[in-house]
């Protein structure tokens, strides 16, 4: 079902410092910061030859990453995003297999303008998983 690794997301407490680290210290190509009000985060994408790093910073009072940052003061790997061809077919199979879809349970539009959904970390080896239809 899953295809390529679309991105690895890292939650950060200092977005400017994280951008400087990837752009200036590691020499990567880094996007502008984009507010994602529907998701309660600000995103910066770091382009790598084989995948992307998504730097996440909280936006608003109810950011879904705030609890994670409260527990991880230095930030840390927040989720992995795998590509799927048909997100509704993927969702139906996962639900049939007893996996929990987070939020409303229905796909939403993500940072790349494509449908995404999130799977509960307790169902996936302690790792929050995002699926993105490509
Ligand atoms: C920009 C759009 C999009 C894209 O296109 O790329 C994005 O990436 S948006 C990114 C931000 N959005 C989300 O993360 C949405 C899905 N996340 C959630 O719904 C919540 O963050 C959560 C996963 C349900 C966690 O909610 P929270 O309130 O912080 O914690 P809980 O207490 O409910 O956590 C239960 C349990 O799970 C552990 N946990 C929490 N977050 C993670 C994580 N990122 N990775 C691994 N484990 C995680 C948490 O520690 C709790 O465990 P216990 O302490 O053992 O109970
Ligand atoms: Co993501």
UniProtKB/TrEMBL annotation:
Its EC number is 5.1.99.1. GO terms for biological process: L-methylmalonyl-CoA metabolic process. This is methylmalonyl-CoA epimerase. Residues 4-134 form the VOC domain. The keyword Repeat does not apply. It catalyses: (R)-methylmalonyl-CoA = (S)-methylmalonyl-CoA. Pfam families: Glyoxalase_4. Coiled coil: none annotated. Belongs to the methylmalonyl-CoA epimerase family. It comes from Paremcibacter congregatus. The keyword Metal-binding applies. GO terms for molecular function: metal ion binding; methylmalonyl-CoA epimerase activity. CDD domains: MMCE.
